[in-house]
Fold this protein.
Amino acid sequence: MKEKKLGLMALILMIFTSVYGFNNIPRSYYLMGYAAIPWFVIAGILFFIPFAFMVAEYGSAFREEKGGMYSWMCKSVGPKYAFIGTFMWYTSYVLWMVNVSSGIWVPVSNVIFGKDNTASWSFFGSSFLSGTKLLGLMAAIFFICITFFVTKGIDKIRKVTSIGGTAVLTINILVVLGSIIMIIARHGHLEQPFLGVESLKTPLNVAYQGNVIMILSFIVYALFAYGGIEAVGGLVDKTENPKKNFPKGIVTAALVIVVGYALLIMLVGSFTNYNEILGADNITLGNVSYVIMSNFAAEFGKAFGASAATQAALASGFARIYALIMLLALLGAMFTLVYSTLKQIIDGTPKELWPGKMGVVDEDGMPRNAMWIQCVIVCALILLISFGGDNMQQFFLILTAMVNVGMTVPYVFISFAFPRFKKLTNIDRSFEVYKTQKSANFWGYVVTIVLVLANVFAIIQPALDGDYLTTFWSLAGPVIFGVAAWFIYTRYEKRVAAGLIPAESEEKEETVTTEAEAEA
């Protein structure tokens, strides 16, 4: 039976759903206000579009390979480089699990109480087990439970949580339509005045005003908002007339996503006065989305003359609905990613590479041994960070910074390998966007430089303001996991050299050569 191909509109929708994340909007507004918009545009031009084209070329050329990005980098540069890059990609999801396990109690609090009061939680009044410490302990217990259920093969819960994806799309539509209705009802009045170029260049957040390094560090948030585009690589051969439709699809999807982020940030400002709503000390990156969504409902009621009591009821009710939606979406993602990313990296690499029985995948596809090792690492990181400080704002700032840096660093490996990939001969070049080696070199290095500089600024900026803890953890994640990857592969090389195990990676190598080798 002939496989049905994706049309242009279906391709655009798939790229959009892989990349677009609603939570990036309230967080970006909280950090920069309207001034976040230009950075989303810059990140789209210098990162999203060129990187998506690179991933598409990789995916088309190596469409028969099962190893995904590992195969791309292995064939282009070498197995050790590929393993370190892929291992860091996997560990970025470990950091994501740390973040979600800790942050999931914010929507739980909103569902139960209609607001985030996690900062006041304590264990039977204990001053020691309160705030970030209690959240950290609860997060570790939560992750152990998730790992236990998934190792038992109980994945039916994911079917329930898939409702979250549809509900998040509904929230986007509600915010857009509701905001436009409020603007019309208020005769064009915006709660946060928009002053044109001045608003686009001056952050509303006082901490960012006049701080060039801090403003430049924000680009990591914009880059993170475009994360997920590595999934685009497998869509080339599933698209009708890919030479024509795929570039058009990526450019169109990129424009829709950039405009979507810009429009939603503007609309958040239409019903959220920055100083009145987001100026309080209890606002964090963990709860800002719920604060803004509850404010959306209250302002909607206010625009149509609702009483203060009705506004409060609307805010509390909508906060609960939004929190429940996010809770379902996060649980669904957690149940999937707790094993799928681990399975992908183990499947794509030689089993002998992993210490002990870590590389064993059971008959039902579950890498159970590796999952429990992963559980220990995630719980250790959660407890180290949560017991490292009592400030709730800093706690969520550290977690978010770790994820943003951790998830964008692996992209450096892919973009830096692209010029080498372009030199390969005797591979399928049926889909090409970068027609020359010069264009491949230029965009490969531009994207790499943008990613490196953005992460450097994001890592050093907190230290310049005296926040050494955030800088330490932002740098620690990629460094620790990068060193771990180097150690694991070096150990594997030594065992191969000693003849203790077969050189499995050598058997997998294809007859792909560079132009220089072909000429020789």
Notes: Residues 8-519 form a domain with the Amino acid/polyamine transporter I fold (CATH 1.20.1740.10). Residues 505-520 have pLDDT under 50 and may be disordered. Strands lie at 424-425, 513-514.
